[in-house]
Every structure is written in structure tokens, then in C-alpha cells.
Write a sequence for this structure.
């Protein structure tokens, strides 16, 4: 076990199975090549990706299926290739990849999830990248608490 | 928004220094080529959106504010 300073949880011990390499970093955070996946509560959707470089950088995320149970993966072939996955089909949720939407608070207290560019984590190689969809099917600011009726007006892209 | 119809091989000029050429059109999409000065930043729009959204996600609030926003429907 190693230990890491975290933004939200003080000093945490973690095993190698929680470390994910992001060879290209994330857009706007290209220098961040490694994150520790923190799952505070077993079975709860809210997880965290703590930067291994900067204690002050930690992303909160939900599994895309926790945000939208009908979410259809749309990972571009180049991104599948980058992860070393079969480019002819979308990978299986859970057994092959975990797909996480980063959460933001926009304008203060409204939480949104980025379904347009989810993080795809290969569970075998523990490599990850942010897979920007080529279609405009999902919003980068999908509201996760607003009543269903309000959602249509929130769709942006 | 200015809308122009162009065929493969035809170009559009933006100002004096930027040329956008439609290279090919296929079922998968249109392939465009962009000629611009080195200092002009050319980005896929969705990449720019992702950068901005990531920056917002990173400027994370305290954990309690975040949890509140997730659990409570907004007023």
C-alpha cells in the first residue's frame, strides 16, 4: 500500500489496483498522467479521481449509467485503439471498462455531469482517457438533480 | 451564421491568412483542411468545451456542497 495526500479525505492508503494511468492526461490537464480512483462508499455512485501529482486536484464523478441508465457508449475508434481495445465494437460496461462522467457545479449549486466526454477506464490495463464523443447525443452539462421535465431545456452542446 | 455550399477541392478564405478547404465528403463526414498562421489556435470545438468543462469540474467546491447539490433537487 502507498499513501497519498487527497483533496477531500486527508491522507489515504491505496493499492495499485486503484491507480489509473492517463498517458495523455485530460484536456486542460495534460500533465496529469495518473489518478487514484477513490470509492468512498461501496455501491454508491459517487467516486473520485485524485491526482497523483497535486493533492488539490480531485475530480468527482458518477458512472454514466448512474446519470442516465439508458446511456449508450459512443467511444471513437481512435480512442478504443489508444486503450488497446477492439475498435470494431463498443466495450462492455463493467467487465471491460468503467465509464465515468465528471461532475461540476455550474452557477453555484446545480450539479451537472459531462456525458459528452466521459472518462473511460480500462479495467484490465488500468489505463484511461477522456473519450470525447463525435456525436452530439449527450450534453457536457447534463443536470443530475433537476426533475425530468426540466431536462429538455437544459440540453446544450 | 454564414452558410456556403462548397464541393470537394473548393476553399473558403477567412480574412487574409486563413483558408479552409473542403477536401472530401464521405458518409462518415466531411474532411476539411485548414491553412492558418502558426499562432492561430485551431481546435475541435468539442475539445475546447471539454477543456473548459474539466476546468470547472476541477475547481471543485467542498465535499459537503457537492453532496448537497447532488442529493437535493434545486429550488
Amino acid at each position: 500500500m502507498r499513501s497519498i495526500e487527497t483533496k477531500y479525505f486527508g491522507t489515504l492508503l491505496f493499492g495499485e489496483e486503484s491507480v489509473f494511468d492517463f498517458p495523455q492526461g485530460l484536456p486542460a490537464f495534460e500533465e496529469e498522467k495518473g489518478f487514484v480512483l477513490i470509492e468512498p462508499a461501496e455501491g454508491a455512485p459517487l467516486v473520485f479521481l485524485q491526482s497523483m501529482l497535486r493533492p488539490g486536484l480531485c475530480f468527482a464523478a458518477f458512472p454514466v449509467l448512474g446519470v442516465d441508465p439508458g446511456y449508450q457508449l459512443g467511444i471513437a475508434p481512435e480512442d478504443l485503439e489508444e486503450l488497446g481495445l477492439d475498435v470494431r465494437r463498443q466495450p462492455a460496461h463493467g467487465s471491460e471498462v468503467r465509464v465515468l462522467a465528471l461532475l461540476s457545479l455550474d452557477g453555484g449549486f446545480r450539479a451537472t455531469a459531462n456525458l459528452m466526454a466521459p472518462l473511460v477506464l480500462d479495467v484490465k490495463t488500468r489505463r484511461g482517457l477522456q473519450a470525447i464523443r463525435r456525436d452530439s447525443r449527450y450534453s457536457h452539462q447534463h443536470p443530475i438533480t433537476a426533475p425530468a421535465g426540466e431536462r429538455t431545456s437544459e440540453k446544450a452542446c | 451564421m454564414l452558410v456556403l455550399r462548397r464541393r470537394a477541392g473548393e476553399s473558403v478564405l477567412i480574412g487574409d491568412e486563413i483558408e479552409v478547404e473542403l477536401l472530401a465528403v464521405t458518409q462518415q463526414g466531411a474532411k476539411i483542411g485548414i491553412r492558418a498562421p502558426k499562432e492561430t489556435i485551431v481546435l475541435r470545438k468539442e475539445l475546447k468545451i471539454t477543456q473548459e468543462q474539466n476546468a470547472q469540474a476541477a475547481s471543485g467546491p467542498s465535499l459537503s456542497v457537492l453532496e448537497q447539490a447532488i442529493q437535493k433537487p434545486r429550488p
In short: Chain A has a mean pLDDT of 90.
